[in-house]
């Protein structure tokens, strides 16, 4: 809310390091409220940092090998960690115990490369194994299941002989609505599955070929998608619309080549990218360069036709991961030494702010005195006018925007908590079957929770 | 001398007679008031005209005696079950607001106390003392959990942020300190003022702090920002040595010294009390004074005022004429005056969920009074408060 006080202009990208957290992490992710940051470590520990005090507040000790990914539930109450020890663990931060106890443990058949919550229901979990398989795990009582998402190889006749089936799956993500699962493969394909039916509804080849897809990120409105692939290029695509057959209501299978709207790369050094992240408004794209000697973040201005905007230099420790804050011009980037740099956009001190009613101007302005500027007004009139001005009602206790960071603006209106407005970027779609399915038997991640206040005992 | 003489014609009696549409404008003393018609229940905001005609009917419920020196602050715990009070003696007293029972004395400070703040889980209580320290108490055990040392002078005011991870305190040498409540360590010092810092308060998001001081400067600072209504030029040196940035200065024509400030429950506005006997509600983003509440007397003491949102929307403030005033938030009319204290009412607090007000007075009175309004339901009727 104070963004408007600090900079009345528009949203920008971060420019300088504000803090560095000595976290020993391999990656760091902001929670949807932006208050916490979750860090995964090589030693199997995951830590939750409070950005208000810049201190670690919870230690999630459950894995015995490196943590590979961490995800937050919609209201930040639950944290999911995946690890090379074949486990996925869900933690409840509202728990009164410290250290927090695990809420659920999912044992997989291989080391887990990444796992994430369904955006609408934290009981539906997507897990990618290092063997190149993707599982959709449903923890709800009525839907309890574990389903592998794979490309059916029955109808070879229609496809162009070269099935992507033989390729390993290298990245798996829910789209922003959670209706679809997007999977990137080592063959440069993007496969799309319906989350509810688990059926593959589309297969996209990236035009021109791209090599292994290493990363995927969606803009918050869900309409754009960026891929990071082994040919050292980031590609932005418009997410296609998946039409449904009018008779069955099932998506028609789409086998389509995707043409990127933009390609981003480093033309000089030809560096690869470790991570890529959109800004909350989708106007900026940050790429973390896989530079062995420097910590460099490249920023592109999407609203300005993808023009390169700037490079952020974070010093000598090479970058391993980055994540953009859910609502602010802030980035968390992790160095390969395990330090987390929090980037922000500093504001110059405005000395004019020290004087009431004083306005700073950038350039000299020829001042023209108003006709009545120095007229002496009738005091009674001033008081009367002031009283009149004070008649407007004020609202002192409605908290609006409290949830704004969690619910992005979609299609021009605010998406409210679970009551039906679409989270998806697909225009004009209301709460359809897929959404209803996902909302069924939702757990208690409803946004009203408090983290128990802890006090260190070492004092006195 | 008559405090009511300064008011315009909005005395309580006139209002009752001319404006009230409820069937019983005059509630007999000590008789339970009939519940208001359901349509007048306040949770529906789009009926301001109806809400405006409502009046509070607070009655004295309890008088808590025990303090031996002037009371400086009373605070309800966020769960509503306890009331903490402090004064110029060295102890904090914990009361039950429902039974008027003294539950516990928290002893440890070596000089008088000026302010209190509860953590949001009602487990911890922070106290600001003239012994230059802040103590964080675990209220259940009565033990000091943290002892925050660092201020060079008397600590005058303090507040937790909404998540109770940070504590902000202001001292008489003009410094504001921000503490990590968990570790008990000072994380930042803002050399913000030149004189007594009389109030500091976090907004909901904890990214702003508003503060004001007797030097006439009213600051808001979050760890890095400040908003002020100031009446003097601040030398730039002060701000260069702190990382705080000044965001805004709210200025009115008058030169009244502002002595208490706080954010509204939604943090959109700032409520300030000033020594020109006026309480003001500011829209700090647009530099505007939205409301002025007058009629009470406040020219000398640091007197607190607060929002009451459990029934109707009121502003409750103490006064130097020994009374407590309740204004209608919107119409700015005085809707009730609570009489009973024998001296200046400096401390005022509203209950988080029930229609209850606690007030504390100084030297010749030394009592805490609990006032209740049973004529309307609070927003949340909660089970925790009925345990006794």
From TrEMBL, chain A:
WD repeats lie at residues 60-95. Its main location: nucleus. GO terms for cellular component: Set1C/COMPASS complex. It is found in: Nucleus. The keyword Repeat applies. PROSITE patterns: WD_REPEATS_1 (PS00678), WD_REPEATS_2 (PS50082), WD_REPEATS_REGION (PS50294). Pfam families: WD40. Keywords: Nucleus, Repeat, WD repeat. SMART domains: WD40 (SM00320). It comes from the Eukaryota. PANTHER family: RETINOBLASTOMA-BINDING PROTEIN 5 (PTHR44040:SF1). This is COMPASS complex protein. It comes from Lentinula detonsa.
UniProtKB/TrEMBL annotation, chain B:
Residues 10-26 have a biased composition (Acidic residues). Coiled coil: none annotated. Residues 63-372 form the WDR5-like beta-propeller domain. SMART domains: WD40 (SM00320). WD repeats lie at residues 64-105, 106-142, 148-189, 251-292, 293-337. InterPro entries: Beta-prop_WDR5-like, WD40/YVTN_repeat-like_dom_sf, WD40_PAC1, WD40_repeat_CS, WD40_repeat_dom_sf, WD40_rpt. Residues 1-51 are annotated as: Disordered. One of its GO terms (cellular component) is Set1C/COMPASS complex. Keywords: Repeat, WD repeat. Residues 31-48 have a biased composition (Pro residues). Pfam families: Beta-prop_WDR5. The keyword Calcium does not apply. One of its GO terms (molecular function) is histone binding. It comes from the Eukaryota. This is WD40-repeat-containing domain protein.
């Amino acid at each position: 809310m104070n963004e408007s006080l600090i900079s009345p202009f528009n949203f920008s990208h971060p420019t300088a390091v504000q803090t560095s957290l000595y976290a020993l992490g391999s990656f760091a992710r902001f929670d949807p409220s932006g208050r916490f940051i979750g860090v995964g470590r090589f030693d199997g520990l995951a830590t939750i940092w409070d950005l208000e005090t810049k201190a670690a507040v919870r230690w999630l000790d459950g894995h015995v090998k490196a943590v590979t990914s961490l995800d937050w539930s919609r209201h930040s109450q639950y944290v999911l960690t995946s690890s090379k020890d074949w486990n996925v663990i869900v933690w409840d931060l509202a728990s009164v115990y410290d250290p927090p106890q695990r809420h659920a443990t999912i044992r997989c058949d291989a080391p887990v490369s990444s796992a994430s919550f369904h955006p609408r229901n934290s009981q539906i979990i997507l897990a990618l194994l290092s063997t190149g398989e993707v599982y959709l795990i449903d923890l709800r009582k009525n839907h309890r299941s574990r389903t592998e998402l794979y490309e059916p190889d029955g109808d070879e006749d229609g496809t162009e002989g070269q099935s992507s089936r033989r390729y390993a799956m290298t990245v798996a993500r829910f789209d922003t609505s959670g209706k679809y699962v997007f999977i990137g493969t080592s063959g440069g394909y993007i496969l799309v599955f319906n989350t509810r039916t688990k059926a593959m509804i589309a297969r996209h080849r990236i035009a021109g070929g791209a090599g292994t897809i290493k990363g995927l990120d969606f803009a918050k409105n869900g309409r754009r998608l960026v891929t990071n692939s082994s040919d050292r290029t980031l590609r932005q695509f418009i997410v296609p619309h998946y039409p449904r057959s009018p008779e069955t209501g099932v998506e028609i299978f789409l086998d389509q080549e995707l043409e990127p709207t933009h390609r981003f790369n480093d033309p000089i050094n030809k560096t690869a990218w470790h991570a890529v992240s959109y800004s909350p408004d989708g106007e900026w794209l940050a790429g973390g360069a896989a530079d062995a000697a420097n910590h460099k973040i490249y920023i592109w201005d999407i609203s300005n036709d993808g023009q390169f905007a700037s490079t952020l230099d974070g010093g000598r420790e090479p970058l391993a991961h980055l994540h953009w804050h859910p609502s602010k011009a802030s980035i968390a980037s992790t160095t390969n030494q395990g330090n987390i740099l929090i980037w922000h956009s500093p504001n110059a001190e405005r000395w004019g702010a020290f004087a009431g009613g004083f306005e700073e101007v950038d350039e000299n302005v020829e001042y023209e005195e108003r006709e009545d500027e120095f007229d002496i007004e009738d005091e009674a009139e001033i008081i009367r006018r002031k009283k009149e001005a004070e008649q407007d009602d004020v609202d002192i206790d409605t908290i609006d925007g409290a949830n704004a960071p969690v619910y992005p603006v979609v299609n021009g209106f605010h998406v409210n908590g679970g009551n039906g407005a679409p989270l998806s970027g697909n225009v004009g779609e209301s709460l359809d079957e897929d959404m209803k399915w996902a909302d069924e038997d939702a757990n208690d991640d409803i946004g009203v929770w408090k983290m128990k206040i802890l006090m260190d005992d070492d004092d006195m | 001398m008559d405090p009511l003489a300064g008011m315009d014609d909005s005395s309580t009696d006139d209002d009752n007679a001319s404006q009230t549409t409820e069937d019983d404008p005059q509630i007999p003393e000590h008789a339970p008031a009939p519940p208001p018609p359901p349509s007048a229940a306040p949770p529906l905001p789009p009926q301001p005209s109806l809400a405006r005609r409502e009046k509070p009917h607070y009655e004295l419920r309890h008088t808590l005696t025990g303090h031996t020196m002037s009371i400086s602050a009373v605070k309800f715990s966020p769960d509503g079950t306890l009331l903490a009070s402090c004064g110029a003696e060295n102890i904090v007293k914990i009361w039950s607001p429902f039974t008027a029972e003294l539950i516990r004395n928290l002893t440890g400070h070596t000089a008088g106390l000026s302010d209190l703040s509860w953590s949001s889980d009602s487990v911890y209580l922070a106290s600001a003392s003239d012994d230059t320290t802040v103590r964080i108490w675990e209220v259940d055990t009565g033990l000091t959990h943290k002892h925050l040392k660092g201020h060079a002078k008397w600590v005058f005011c303090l507040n937790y942020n909404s998540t109770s991870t940070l504590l902000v305190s202001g001292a008489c040498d003009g410094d504001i300190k921000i503490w990590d409540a968990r570790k008990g360590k000072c994380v930042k010092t803002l050399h913000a003022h030149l004189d007594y810092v009389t109030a500091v308060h976090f907004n909901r998001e904890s990214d702003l702090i508003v503060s004001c001081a007797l030097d006439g400067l009213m600051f808001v600072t979050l760890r890095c920002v400040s908003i002020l209504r100031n009446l003097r030029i601040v030398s730039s040196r002060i701000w260069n040595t702190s990382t705080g940035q000044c965001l805004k200065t709210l200025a009115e024509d008058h030169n009244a010294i502002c002595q208490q400030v706080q954010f509204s429950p939604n943090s959109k506005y700032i409520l300030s009390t000033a020594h020109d006997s006026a309480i003001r509600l500011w829209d700090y983003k647009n530099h505007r004074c939205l409301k002025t509440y007058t009629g009470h007397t406040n020219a000398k003491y640091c007197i607190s005022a607060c929002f009451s949102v459990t029934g109707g929307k009121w502003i409750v403030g103490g006064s130097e004429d020994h009374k407590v005033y309740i204004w209608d938030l919107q119409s700015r009319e005085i809707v009730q005056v609570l009489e009973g204290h024998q001296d200046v009412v400096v401390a005022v607090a509203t209950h988080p969920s029930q229609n209850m007000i606690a007030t504390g007075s100084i030297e010749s009175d030394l009592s805490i009074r609990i006032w209740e309004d049973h004529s309307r339901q609070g927003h949340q009727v909660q089970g925790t408060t009925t345990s006794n």
